[in-house]
Amino acid sequence: MDYKEFCSTEIVFADLQELKTRLEALEYKNITFVMSESSAQRWVLLDSINEVRKNCKNLGNDFVWLKDIAANPNQSDVLLALEQIDSKRIDVIIAIGGGSALDLAKAVSAFYKDGSNNPYTVSDITNIIQSKKYPLSGGVDIIGIPSTAGTGSELTQWATIWDIDGQAKYSIDHPRLKPVQALIVPELTYTLPADLTLSTGLDAMAQAIEAYWSKHTNPLVQDLAFRAVELVMTNLKQAIENMTDAKAREGLCRASVLAGLAFSQTRTTACHSISYPLTMLHNVPHGLAASITLDGVGRLNKRHFENDEKLFELFSTYGGIMNWIDWVSKGVQIMRLSAFGIKQEDIVNIVDRAFTGGRMDNNPVDLSKKDVEDILIQVL
Which domains does the chain have, with CATH numbers? Predict the structure, then answer.
């Protein structure tokens, strides 16, 4: 019988100074960083990175810094990263940033080959993702250091790669891509503006709620997810209104970790499935796209999963999930599809692309195209 580890990632909470100390004390020989240069400057990490670079050079080891982080990495971005690595060796990838930095790090780990990384084409990248036959040249360790509180990518084995032609969303999926360590530094989130704080916080909310009602949920997952929802509800508004509120930022980081632990066991459901065309076709930020249908999907899911009343009771004071989302988003983003330029005539195309395998069929209720259309019209 095969057994699935609940969590193989070491989770460490630290402050900014400890992060710098840990970076400078890395024991790996050949090190690749995935992080934008502006982020390194913002968090005053340049000296630490240069120290790592110097140590690698003095020992005759390889150092690579991948600084170009696209908001939604596609096959071309993966190719560019692999070309920069070329024939250099990698023992560990340090990914510091949001979900996109972690996605790119996982893609590099999945496609990295000892010797040379130039032979790939866009078609090669696409075909390998679809066939799931990754080179995984012995596997490259990943240390995930998130600068947002919401994606949970520092705890999962999945990475999202968007089609270069905007026609599809691909998921890289392999147990070896789960980071060996997640280093959680709430101070890194202090520079997040209100819109990104909202989007990433709502992403954690969506992950937690979907894990709670997933077909693959269990009592422990529900406990983790429930606490994650509570933490988002307690801290998101405060973090939006005060960027450097240490208690609120740490609360959101804890929520992100708990949500990540929960949905890494279950995967997400209909809300995430519907979100992909919203992001791909209309550039709706991921966390907003995933959360905007929580209320509508939740209404259909009600009474079809265990402990449903306990979850919905959290939002009863506000009159439902959507009312709470409207409240927490006020002054930052109007949470209606029309606010993102989506018109009623766009909905048919969105619905046609909203059924992602492994997500939509993980929902406790089987949704029809008419169900999805009605849900989207409710938030138009």
Answer: 10-187 (3.40.50.1970), 192-378 (1.20.1090.10)
